[in-house]
Amino acid sequence: MKSAGSILLAASIAALSGGLAAAADFPSRAVSIVVPYPPGGTVDGVARLLAAELSETTGKTFVVDNRAGGAGGIVGSSDVVKADPDGYTLLLNASIHVVTPLINKNVPFDVMNDFTHIAGIAAGPLLVLTNPAIKANNLKDFFAEVKADPEGFNFATSGYGSAGHLAVEALKAEAGVDIDVVTYKGAGPALTDLIGGQIQLMADPMLSSLPHVKAGRLKALAVTSLKRSPLAPDVPTVEESGMKPLEMLSWYGVWAPKGLDPAAASYLDGAISKVVTSDKFKEKLTVFGFEPMYKTGPELKTFMTDETARYKTIVDSAGIKVE
């Protein structure tokens, strides 16, 4: 008859063996990277690049799963919160992930405490855009035109609470103009109307907007970084365009459900770190107008806390909220 001690020892060895097996086996099937928006947007583009590089680097399968619905990606993000914390369901979202709870009291999750923070992966500035028919070539002159004829100008954003929305609100506040910002369902429709002259100002990531600037369909008044972007060296910073310095980056991170399995967490951290810090990933991100922004899970959580405080100032000042 076995003693209680021997039974406990055997159980401990079995548990340890099981944990090692789980670590060795993960992932044994496809890992789903949930993008809480339709295909074709900037978040989707970054997710597909990451999924492709992770698949190639690890020899495992990582796929993008678009689950659109709800302002700020609430539906897709909620699905991840409810998923098993086994590492097979991840969330990739942009900076709007921390803005949504600031503007919507009905968000059914806590972005700081209901997720496991995996990694920060990328960041990039926005282009502040107008139609080529506008005479102004810098922000100072643009807002002078707005003040002279406020009825002739419409501002827009491709996503309510997005980095582009906050950038436009910050510029409005400094310029002292009070023009509503129209929300579009995605960058495509907004850019189409900007090109067509129905709207006269928006800020958007380079991935979706820079091709239109290079083709002459849009005019870039500024870039929302403290230094000029090597992708658009002729576009001045906000400060060079005649206003106070403004840094508003669109940044991207990866999260998993709360209580993520330690073996999966270790594997994902190592795989994502290897991809994001590689020269190959950096080169491909540059085409998108972004740079790698690798942050560990704890670093990402601290970064989110700092960004939330900064965004809250803009949100409160502009009165941005979901009714």
UniProtKB/TrEMBL annotation:
Q: Which family does it belong to?
A: Belongs to the UPF0065 (bug) family.
- Output the superkingdom of the source species: Bacteria
- Which InterPro entries does its entry note? BUG, Bug_dom1
**Keywords, alphabetical:** Receptor, Signal
First and last residue of the signal peptide: 1-23
Protein name from the UniProt record: Tripartite-type tricarboxylate transporter receptor subunit TctC
What Gene3D superfamilies does this protein map onto? Bordetella uptake gene, domain 1, Periplasmic binding protein-like II
